[in-house]
Amino acid sequence: MPAHCVFTTEDKKMNCIELKHKLPDYIDQLLDKQEVKPVIDHLRTCRSCQREYRLYDMAVTSVANLPLLSPSPEFNSKVFSALGLEYKPALFPAWSKWAAGLASLVLMWAGGVMLAVIYAVSKLGLAQTYLYLKNPQKVLTALQFALVKTWFVLSDAVNNAQALTAWLFKGSTLPLQISLSFLAAAAVVMLAMVKMRYQPQGRFWNHS
Amino acid sequence: MPADKQDIILVQRCLDGDSRAFNDLMNKYKRQVFSLIVRLVKSPADAEDILQDTFIKAYRNLSSYDAQYPLLTWLFKIAHNTSIDFLRANKGETLTINDEENPIDLEDTGSSLEEKMEQLSEKELIERMVDSVPAPYREVLIMRHQQELSYEEIAEAIQIPMGTVKVRLFRAREILKTKLEAAGYG
Fold it and tell me: Which of A15, A156, A175, B130 has its CA 20 to 30 A from that of A22?
């Protein structure tokens, strides 16, 4: 144990030898919560172990940061040829999926904006639209007004829903309300589980 | 950790004769398997041949794949065995060691590393240090820290007990740590 190490086993705290034993599991994040604290406490105060930890961490990080290497571009066709199979490369490159996703998202938004503009023009009329285009600040005021109006409509809807719920549960007791809510929630969960259940039928699926 | 659902579907499609699914499967894992093999045999050309054999064996034995383990673990297992056969046949080397009988000499990092340091970039130097770790130790290092396999998955891939994986990984990190220390890091 280094001379400058402050902890000893007599202190019932971790010493350098114990730390050295714990360090691999600490790096691999395999220690329990209660085991981690003494390690951190020791590392805070012991320079020798800090250095040990830094080197350990560097060894692990250097391996983790090694680049992934690729075989030659003809690799897949070579394997197919060796297997006697017809090589059918993907019709589109892998990145095309992302590009298609992004394009559809952009198109969806563009379509939405266009519909909104068409709706606004048909509601306002050409003259009013021209006025708005001339004074864009007025658009902001109109939007604020529309938002407040929508908020009132939504509030009304929520109030009506509350009134309907109160009418439905009128005279019922709290346990009944809780039971009904529980049954509704259970039904939703069961429905979701049935929908999401995966049922493989492959012959390679050996374990139950 | 059991197999990924997407992989199970891919394997099923392969078994149903969909060769495009096997192409997708190769595209998904060939870089990871190739990286491991290159680190083991240290020759990209040989590694590509071994990778080819690995995927051919995988295709022919897909029906025996047990979805209890991830598909990558199974591919690593085939790659490990194929690499052992290659090293035995071509270089007289082996990836198996007796961990108890052959303790690693931690002092084998000579001053040559310090000399090389001046000529190489830090990234290249560290890569060379990793490559200079003995193959059986290097293999577990790569599987654990680059490919992020669990101890259990490594044990399954190399077919050694989990305790041996732990011991081997501990020694591998000690060796690399000593090399880094000798090169002036830390």
Answer: B130
Rounded to whole angstroms, the Cα distance separating A84 from A70 reads: 23
Which among A59, A69, A202 is the nearest to B180, CB-wise? A59
Higher pLDDT, B36 or A162: B36
Residues B56, B62, B66, B71: is their CA dihedral positive or negative? positive
Whole-angstrom Cα distance, residue A69 to residue A142?
A: 58
Q: What total number of domains does chain A contain?
A: 2
Task: Please indicate whether, in this complex, the C-beta atoms of B8 and A83 are within 8 angstroms of each other.
Answer: no
Does residue B91 sit at the A interface (CB-CB below 8 Å)? no
Q: Kindly give, in sequence order, each residue whose CB lies less than 8 Å from that of residue A100, ignoring residues fewer than 6 positions away.
A: none
Examine the pLDDT at A101 and tell me if it is beyond 80: yes
> Per-residue pLDDT tens for A137-146?
888 888 888 8
Q: Is A59 within the bounds of a domain? A: yes
Domains belonging to chain B, first-starting first, are 5-90 (1.10.1740.10), 112-182 (1.10.10.10)
